[in-house]
Structures are given as structure tokens and as C-alpha cells.
Amino acid sequence: MIERAGPVARVTLDRPPLNLLEPGLIRALRDAFRDLAEDASVRVAVITGRGRAFTAGMDVHVLASLDVARAKALITGLHDAIHAVHAAPFPVIAAVNGHALGAGFELALACDLRVAARGATFGLPEVRVGVPSVIEAALLAPLVGPGRAAELLLCGESIGADDALAWGLVNRAVAPEELDTVVDALVNKILAGAPAAIRLQKELMIRWRSTDLATAVEYGVNAFAVSYASPDAAEGLRAFLEKRAPRW
After folding, report:
1. CATH code for the domain of 67
2. 3-class secondary structure, 42
3. Which of 158, 147, 141, 152 is nearest to 98 (CA)?
4. Parts of the chain with a pLDDT under 70
5. Could you tell me the pTM of the whole model?
6. Looking at residue 222, which CATH number applies to its domain?
7. Does residue 165 sit in helix, strand or coil?
């Protein structure tokens, strides 16, 4: 489900209580973010779950019915959906209201910022049901380090929000009743930035994850120059010198 409030899109996984992923919900998530990516008025998105979970991962009943060919098709479709979140041209915040397990954990990893309610759990339990953690689980090691990533991947155990904060996995760990307020504060901080600069920054962040240092610097040089093609740069600098809020 997508709700819009001006430049902010809120995407809610609406299959309570656990928002288990199955082909229909996977397609809906993919289509939602592909559509939002085409809308230049979107400046930030928040993704959360309805009920007591962000998403507790794949529906095991779906996994139990697979053979080799269908397994590859399913995981490819899941990657397409999570990649649509990861590659969105605007910042995406995960409001982790409850369990984020398996593919749900990978979905949270694909977001740019993560805020977790205390009581939320993060885990990759796939090895305990006979399959490896794949696709966007590859984002884990650069975020928390190879040792901690290996522990999560190989042991299949979950960690809570406070440990996730200590490990650098989430940006904030808050009381459940404070989740929306803290997420809204981050949204407002993003909206205070120049729209064109935020989009350029997001593009750079994606490119930096998959390139060498020299190429990453080159991308940054080009992005800095391109930013001057937008009126945002002139307005932002003028506002700073005039000691007033910019008018984006």
C-alpha cells in the first residue's frame, strides 16, 4: 500500500501479522518502487510493515513447493523487487516496526537509513531451513564487517534492535511509540536538503558500493559539476550568504 504526503511516499507491507513474502506481495513491492522511481516529485520514501513485523521473510509454504527452476525464478523476482528499493533515485528509510528476518532483513539492508523499534529483531535464518542467504544479503558485510556478517549468516540467529544499533546495522533504536516521530524527523532533515543534490548524492552512494576508489572519486567530480546545472546550487549558496532558509 502506498500513501503520499506531498514529496513523501510511505510504502506499507500489508499482509499481517508477519507480512510474509509471496509472489503477489513481491510483485507489488517491485511495481510500487518502479512507479515511484518514475515520479520526479518523490523526494523520500519510508517502508514499513503493518502488524507486528516489518516482514518475517519468505512464506515457508512457498519455499517448500519449489524445484530448481522455480527456486531460481522466485529468487530472481525477489531480487528484482529488493533491487528496485535499493536503486530508487531518492532516499529510502526502513521503519522497522518488528521482525526483519530473511528476505525482510535483506529488504531493510537495501534501504539507505534504518530506524528500529526496540523489540524488533534482525536475522538470516535461511541455513536452518536448508538454503543459504543470498541476493541483498551481500550488502551486510560492508555494513557491519565480515566477522559479524559471518556470525549472522552461518549461525542463523537473530539480534535485537540495541545490538543492531551497536553493530552499525541501524541508525536509531527507539521505543515503539517513538518510531514514527523519529522517522519523520529524518524525513524532514532530508527534505531540508536541495532536491537535486539529494538525488545526485543517492546516485553516488549506489555507485560507490560497486566501484573502486579512483572511479568513485571521478563519479563525485562529475556529480559536483553537474549540480551547477540545477538552480538549487545557486539558491542554496545565495540563501547561506543571505542567512535565510533556502527556497527549494
Report:
1. 3.90.226.10
2. coil
3. 158
4. none
5. 0.95
6. 1.10.12
7. helix
